[in-house]
Write a structure and sequence with these properties.
The protein is built from 15 helices and 9 strands. By secondary structure, the chain is α+β, with helices and mostly antiparallel strands. Among the domains are: 71 residues, TATA-Binding Protein (2-Layer Sandwich); 116 residues, Endonuclease III, domain 1 (Orthogonal Bundle).
Length: 297
């Protein structure tokens, strides 16, 4: 295990960042956030000097951890400038929209968009279709546990790194069915079969947002919602505006906006360009935290 202190130049709130629905393999225990980032186990804790980082490896997502940890946490994003631009975009909307949005952004001052592994994000967001966050976490963990060789023991606890594409190609449909993945099984089996190497995902990073979404949606199980999530949380396309059932309710409550996922997504991307993703996450967190926008029974 290695340990060092990361001293971010800008504000970051680990609670908001790691518990806002953009990532599924982090847990908070006491003051520590403990997670598995593809093939690395990380412990993170905020203190007065910065963020204490404990890692099972000197590498993170195939790069030197000292350099990559800041990129993973989105520390290159200028949150002050991003929020300022979003607030400027909000001036053309009515008072209630502005007031609610300002509160949401205020509470999300240290929330950052992570830059996660594309293959893992594609799999986990396919799992997210008609699913709850606890079940996505459970499925992702159980999928990882199919490979005993991926176990890492750290501080007297065992963690399982996410399988590689090569490993995933060896998973049977029966094994996935036993993980309660259900109707998503054929989508994952076809994904694992169709993609030759993980280099495919690296090559997609050079595409413009619109082209990237189009390419992702060629795969079964990836529609506008899943594709937008992968764009935002893996590739850092900050203009993306993912729309799930929660965000759909938020946009209906706040903007009286109804219609298809594509329509709501396009509204968010166009209205808050180029930072629709940050606005979406702030609203998602605010409504979820305060239990707003729930359907009345």
């Amino acid at each position: 295990m290695i340990e060092f202190t990361l001293k971010p130049a800008g504000l970051i709130d680990l609670d908001s960042t790691l518990d806002c629905g953009q990532t599924f393999r982090w847990r908070k225990e006491g003051d520590w956030w403990k997670g598995v980032v593809r093939d690395t186990v990380l412990f993170l804790k905020e203190d007065s000097d910065g963020i204490i980082v404990r890692s099972s490896s000197k590498s993170l997502l195939g790069k030197d951890i000292y350099e990559e940890i800041g990129n993973y946490l989105g520390l290159g994003d200028n949150l002050e400038e991003i929020h300022s631009i979003i607030l400027e975009r909000l001036k053309c909307f009515d008072q209630r929209v502005r007031i609610v949005s300002e509160k949401a952004l205020k509470e999300a001052e240290g929330l950052r968009i992570l830059r996660q592994d594309p293959f893992e994000m594609v799999v986990e967001y396919i799992l997210s279709t008609r699913n709850s966050i606890p079940m996505i976490r459970w499925m992702s963990d159980k999928l990882s546990e199919l490979f005993p060789e991926n176990r890492i023991d750290l501080c007297q606890e065992s963690y399982y790194t996410f399988p590689s594409l090569e490993q995933a190609k060896g998973i049977s449909a029966e094994a996935l069915t036993e993980l309660k993945i259900g109707f998503r099984v054929p989508w994952l089996m076809k994904l694992f079969s169709d993609i030759e190497t993980e280099g495919y995902f690296s090559r997609l990073s050079s595409l413009a947002a619109e082209d990237l979404l189009e390419e992702l949606m060629k795969h079964d199980g990836i529609g506008y919602k899943v594709g937008s999530c992968v764009m935002l949380f893996a590739y850092g396309k900050l203009s993306a505006f993912p729309v799930d059932i929660w965000v759909s309710r938020v946009m209906k409550d706040l903007f009286a906006l109804d219609g298809s996922t594509k329509k709501v997504m396009q509204f968010g991307m166009d209205s808050f360009f180029p930072y629709g993703g940050y606005y979406q996450e702030a609203l998602f967190r605010y409504y979820r935290t305060h239990k707003l926008g729930r359907e009345k029974k």
